[in-house]
Write a structure and sequence with these properties.
The protein has 78 residues and is of the alpha+beta class. It has helices at residues 11-22, 58-65, and strands at residues 7-10, 27-31, 41-45, 51-53, 72-75. Helix 1 packs across helix 2 (58-65).
Length: 78
């Protein structure tokens, strides 16, 4: 029996996968591109545009939400 190799998922693709799952809850993950917090991701409430969560660990959120499957990991190089 052969083991499958781990599969890298880009940050952009992981955000799309997570957003697909969060859309039903009226939430979305956005990446902050400001000079103050470059690369920081937040969860935003779509109806109010308020930040609900700052400084996300995308890989942990991906695993928790099911957006990352077995053998997948966040490619932090992309």
């Amino acid at each position: 029996m052969s083991e499958s190799k781990p599969v890298a998922v880009s940050e952009k693709d992981l955000i799309v996968r997570i957003n697909h799952r969060l859309a039903a809850k009226g939430k979305v993950v956005v990446k902050n591109h400001s000079d103050d917090d470059p690369g920081d991701c937040h969860i935003i409430d779509i109806s109010t545009n308020f930040i609900l969560e700052k400084g996300l660990d995308l890989e942990a959120l991906g695993l928790e939400s099911g957006a990352l499957g077995d053998g997948e990991y966040l490619d932090r190089q992309s």
